[in-house]
Design the sequence.
């Protein structure tokens, strides 16, 4: 199945390391969790502070569904 | 000994006063709100002789405590009709504090057509006629004032909008480079300054005595701890310096809470084009500066200097709020156009948030269409000219909505909403509804938890518990606004248990006090009570602590959610 993977701020470097665009459609297996997705792309979990799936806050245990929009953020704030 | 400068424009009189018992120990917002509540007739016209413009540095201003340079402006607001405090960085607060000035109170009213500069220095203050600056754009006026009074002076200046007494007029303050990039934006305080006949306040800090600190060693120790917590925090130590506050564009967009095209969607297709990440790339390519402190002693450096392709320095302090307002909310996805709009607002002296809301409503009204950057530029130029349409634009979104018969106006108490759709960030919605300031994100920044997950994560779409959270944030913010600390220290104070005690230690060391954390909370509550009480005397009731009804009915995509915090919950915010 396919998901949309979106890298932001300092995490954009992991898109570059994986030689994929900042916004990519990637192929994953059924039952993939966020944790295993991060692992697959060699992204250290401690660098990912906020995970937003389809606009909702998620944690690394969440199992991904076909067509999910997954956004990864380091700590961000402002005002 | 700290002094108060009292300036009366009717009598053309300047007095230096001792700080009365009533105002002693107050700083920043605590000072401005106390003076407005005590001295301003709540029923006065905001542009009349009886209103007062009050200016005060924070309690820690002028010290080596990092990020303590904010200065508060307060008055009865021409935009909301209620009490208003708007604070800003730059160099003004630090200069005033070092001159040992607890506050400036500007009262009375000059005759129509008169224009003055208030010059403040170590000997006190004087009024200087300044007819040559009339209707001058802010950047030009500041350049002329620096040529006359020296490069190092701090300046607060209004533009043509303030002089024309438009309700969305701001007060611009110079940053560490002497550029007027910092705006006390909200609530139309520039119009109050204009109504008094003051074009600019120039503060010359030469031979300033500096601040008195009772116990310097303890102070310095606590300041070091505090600095360390700011530097170690991943938001204030890394995210903000790298990307500025515009780092929020993408995350609010992902969360479905970035108000787009006059609050009709929570997602903007072109969000990434105007994001902090894109801005940093552009700035680096054009040799601007992506990491800039607006104020002496700032160690977070969220500000920036933005250049156009040809190298012209078009704007600075290019922030999330402004970029959202003039970008996503107007459907404009070109950062250079947004930068030009930002510069126009700063030059004419108009609040960027209010202008983004107003242009959004103008687009909804069909005056121009969504995404029309040149059209937006022209609307602001009308305001600069002072044409009838321009005056309507410069009076804010509520006024424009009324004139054009538009129901969907994103405002509370007449003030346009900032960059978080309250239907998708409900705690922030509670703050918009219940803050004495009108729709204001800084008054209780629940976004820290709803979006940034800072100090705990909460679901932004869930209405439960949001009233309590907003209340806690509003109280903490009111206290912070008394200290002169920039609100962005909150990311450290929310997550590092050493940060808040360090602030209390500094206050105690400076003033020889024995405050506890609880006392600081009490201070925040007292400021809010003072402000609520003033608004009550103006005639505000619970009915004013509500969002526009359309936001409780019209579903916001992509979550298709409405604002559903109950009225009982909203009313609980200010019950004790
Ligand atoms: S963090 Fe930003 S707003 Fe605060 S003082 Fe520094 S540059 Fe100014």
Sequence:
């Amino acid at each position: 199945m396919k998901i949309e993977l979106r890298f932001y701020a300092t995490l954009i470097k992991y898109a570059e390391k994986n030689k994929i665009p900042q916004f990519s459609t990637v192929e994953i297996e059924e039952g993939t969790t966020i944790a295993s997705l991060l692992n697959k792309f060699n992204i250290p979990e401690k660098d990912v502070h906020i995970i937003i799936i389809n606009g909702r806050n998620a944690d690394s245990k969440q199992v991904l569904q076909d067509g999910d929009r997954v956004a990864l953020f380091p700590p961000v704030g402002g005002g | 000994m700290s002094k108060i400068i009292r300036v009366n424009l009717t009598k053309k009189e300047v007095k230096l006063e001792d700080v009365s018992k009533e105002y002693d120990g107050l700083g920043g917002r605590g000072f401005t709100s106390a003076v407005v509540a005590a001295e301003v007739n709540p029923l006065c016209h905001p542009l009349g002789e009886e209103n007062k413009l009050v200016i005060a540095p924070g309690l820690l201003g002028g010290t080596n405590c990092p990020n303590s340079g904010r200065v508060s402006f307060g008055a009865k607001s021409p935009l909301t009709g209620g009490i208003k405090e708007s604070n800003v960085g730059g160099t003004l607060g630090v200069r005033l504090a070092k001159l040992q000035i607890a506050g400036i109170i500007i009262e009375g009213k000059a005759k129509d057509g008169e224009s003055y500069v208030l010059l403040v220095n170590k000997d006190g203050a004087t009024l200087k006629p300044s007819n040559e600056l009339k209707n001058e754009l802010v950047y030009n006026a500041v350049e002329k004032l620096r040529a006359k009074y020296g490069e190092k002076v701090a300046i607060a200046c209004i533009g043509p909008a303030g002089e024309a007494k438009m309700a969305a007029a701001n007060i611009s303050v110079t940053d560490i480079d002497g550029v007027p990039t910092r705006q006390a934006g909200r609530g139309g305080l520039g119009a109050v300054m204009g109504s008094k006949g003051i074009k600019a306040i120039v503060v010359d800090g030469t031979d300033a005595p500096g601040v008195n600190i009772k116990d310097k060693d303890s102070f310095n120790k606590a300041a070091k701890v505090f600095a360390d917590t700011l530097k170690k925090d991943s938001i204030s130590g890394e995210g903000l310096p790298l990307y500025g506050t515009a780092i929020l564009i993408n995350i609010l967009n992902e969360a479905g809470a970035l108000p787009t095209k006059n609050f009709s969607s929570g997602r903007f297709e072109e969000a990434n084009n105007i994001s902090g990440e894109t801005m940093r790339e552009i700035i680096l390519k054009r040799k601007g500066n992506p990491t800039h402190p607006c104020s002496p002693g700032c160690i977070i450096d969220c500000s920036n200097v933005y250049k156009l392709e040809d190298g012209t320095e078009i704007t600075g302090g290019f922030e999330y709020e402004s970029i959202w307002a003039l970008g996503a909310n107007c459907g404009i996805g070109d950062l250079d156009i947004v930068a030009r709009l930002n510069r126009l607002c700063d030059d004419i002296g108009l609040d960027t948030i209010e202008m983004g809301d107003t242009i959004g409503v103008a687009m909804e009204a069909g005056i121009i269409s969504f995404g029309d950057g040149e059209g937006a530029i022209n609307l602001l130029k009308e305001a600069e000219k002072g044409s009838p349409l321009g005056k309507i634009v410069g009076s804010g979104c509520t006024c424009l909505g009324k004139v054009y018969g538009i129901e969907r106006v994103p405002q509370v108490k007449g003030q346009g909403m900032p960059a978080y759709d309250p239907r998708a960030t409900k705690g922030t919605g509670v703050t918009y509804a219940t803050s004495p300031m009108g729709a204001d994100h800084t008054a209780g920044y629940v976004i820290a938890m709803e979006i940034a997950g800072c100090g705990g994560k909460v679901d932004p779409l869930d209405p439960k518990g949001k009233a309590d959270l907003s209340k806690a944030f509003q109280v903490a913010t009111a206290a912070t606004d008394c200290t002169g600390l920039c609100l962005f220290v909150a990311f450290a104070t929310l997550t590092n248990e050493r940060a808040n005690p360090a602030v209390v230690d500094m206050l105690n060391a400076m003033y020889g006090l024995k405050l506890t954390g609880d006392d600081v909370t009490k201070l925040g509550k007292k400021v809010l009570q003072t402000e609520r009480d003033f608004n009550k005397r103006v005639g505000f009731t619970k009915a004013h602590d509500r969002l526009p009804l359309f936001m409780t009915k019209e579903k916001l995509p992509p979550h298709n959610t409405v604002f559903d915090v109950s009225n009982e919950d909203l009313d609980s915010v200010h019950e004790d």
